[in-house]
C-alpha cells in the first residue's frame, strides 16, 4: 500500500483547493453555512452510491489496493473517494462564488 497512485493525488487535490481559496480567490466559502449544508447533501448521496460501487463483497469498481491507503469507511468506501469528492465539489463552488463576485 504505497498510495502513490490514488492517495497522493487525492491529498494533493484537497491541498490545491484549500490553497486556491486561502491564497487566491478568498471567497469566504468555508465560512458559509450553505456550503457546509451542500457538503452534507453531497455526502448523503455519495455514501450510498459509492458504497454500492466499491463494496468489497461484490465491487463494481475495483481499486488496486497497492495504490490506496487501504483505509475504507463506511460501506468499504476508500477514503480517497471522499477527498476527491471534496476537492471536486469545492473547486466548482469556489469558482462559482468567485465569478458571482
UniProtKB/TrEMBL annotation:
Single GO molecular-function term?
lycopene beta cyclase activity
The record's listing under InterPro entries reads: Lycopene_cyclase_dom (IPR017825)
A UniProt-annotated Pfam family: Lycopene_cyc
GO CC list: membrane
**Annotated metabolic or biological route of this protein:** Carotenoid biosynthesis
> Keyword annotations for this protein?
Carotenoid biosynthesis, Isomerase, Membrane, Transmembrane, Transmembrane helix
Mark the transmembrane ranges: 6-22, 34-53, 82-98
Q: Which NCBIfam families match?
A: CarR_dom_SF
Domain Lycopene cyclase positions: 10-98
Q: How does it sit in the membrane?
A: Multi-pass membrane protein
Q: Could you identify this protein by its name?
A: Lycopene cyclase
Q: Name one GO biological process term.
A: carotenoid biosynthetic process
Subcellular compartments: Membrane
Amino acid at each position: 500500500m504505497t498510495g502513490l497512485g490514488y492517495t497522493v493525488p487525492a491529498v494533493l487535490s484537497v491541498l490545491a483547493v484549500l490553497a486556491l481559496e486561502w491564497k487566491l480567490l478568498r471567497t469566504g466559502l468555508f465560512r458559509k453555512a450553505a456550503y457546509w449544508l451542500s457538503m452534507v447533501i453531497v455526502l448523503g448521496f455519495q455514501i450510498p452510491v459509492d458504497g454500492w460501487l466499491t463494496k468489497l463483497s461484490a465491487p463494481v469498481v475495483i481499486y488496486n489496493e497497492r495504490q490506496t491507503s487501504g483505509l475504507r469507511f463506511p460501506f468499504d468506501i476508500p477514503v480517497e473517494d471522499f477527498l476527491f469528492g471534496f476537492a471536486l465539489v469545492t473547486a466548482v463552488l469556489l469558482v462559482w462564488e468567485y465569478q458571482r463576485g
